[in-house]
Design a protein that fits this description.
Urate oxidase N-terminal domain-containing protein; flat; mainly alpha; 190 residues; Urate_ox_N; transmembrane helix; 7 helices; UCP032086
Length: 190
């Protein structure tokens, strides 16, 4: 057991295999198709993305000022770069899988153009919030964090200017995540 649970890649592989077995076992009751597989992936990546967003905003960022200076390097040099890797790729894959679900369900254009009504309009609002959030991740937060963490060269002034930009974009994402989640779960499009 220790070998299984001590290896994250093995745990993920077993989890995926178990999910596939469940999909196949229940296929007569819940068809396995492009839409159902991408919905599952969309939920997985969405949980990873928003979970890391909340970790950063509720735990890491608020605690950084109280961490002793000699220990900050462990966070900024090791933890934060790994968190930000999973954070930005979870955002990317959440958006891609969500767009595939909307396309496979036949409402992509209606939702993005607000041409739909009711649930399609609601999901469109959620989709646009997610797109703004993903833009923030890739084009505001990540470039700023690369400077802050020393991944790219930056002067002290550039690092100081990058910190509030990253914080505002991250807090905007936290703000948008709350109504975005409501839109996604309440639209309930099959």
């Amino acid at each position: 057991m220790a070998k299984l649970f001590g290896n994250l890649n093995l745990v993920l592989g077993v989890g995926i295999a178990l999910a596939i077995l469940i999909m196949l076992a229940f296929a007569p009751y819940s068809p396995v198709n492009l839409n159902s597989v991408f919905r599952w992936l969309h939920v997985f990546f969405g949980i990873l993305w928003i979970g890391l967003l909340y970790y950063l905003n509720f735990v890491q960022v608020p605690l950084m000022p109280s961490i002793p200076a000699e220990q900050k390097g462990a966070v900024t040099g090791h933890i934060a770069p790994k968190v930000l890797f999973y954070f930005r790729y979870a955002a990317l894959f959440t958006v891609i899988t969500g767009l595939v679900v909307a396309w496979a369900s036949g409402y992509l254009v209606q939702a993005l153009s607000f041409a739909g009504v009711g649930a399609v309009a609601l999901i469109g609002v959620g989709m646009w919030m997610a797109l703004v959030m993903a833009f923030n991740v890739w084009f505001i937060i990540w470039p700023a964090q690369k400077k802050i963490l020393g991944i790219v060269e930056a002067s002290a002034e550039e690092k100081a200017a990058a910190a509030p930009r990253a914080l505002i974009a991250s807090r905007l994402n936290t703000l948008l995540s709350i109504p975005m989640i409501y839109c996604m779960v309440s639209a309930n499009l099959g």
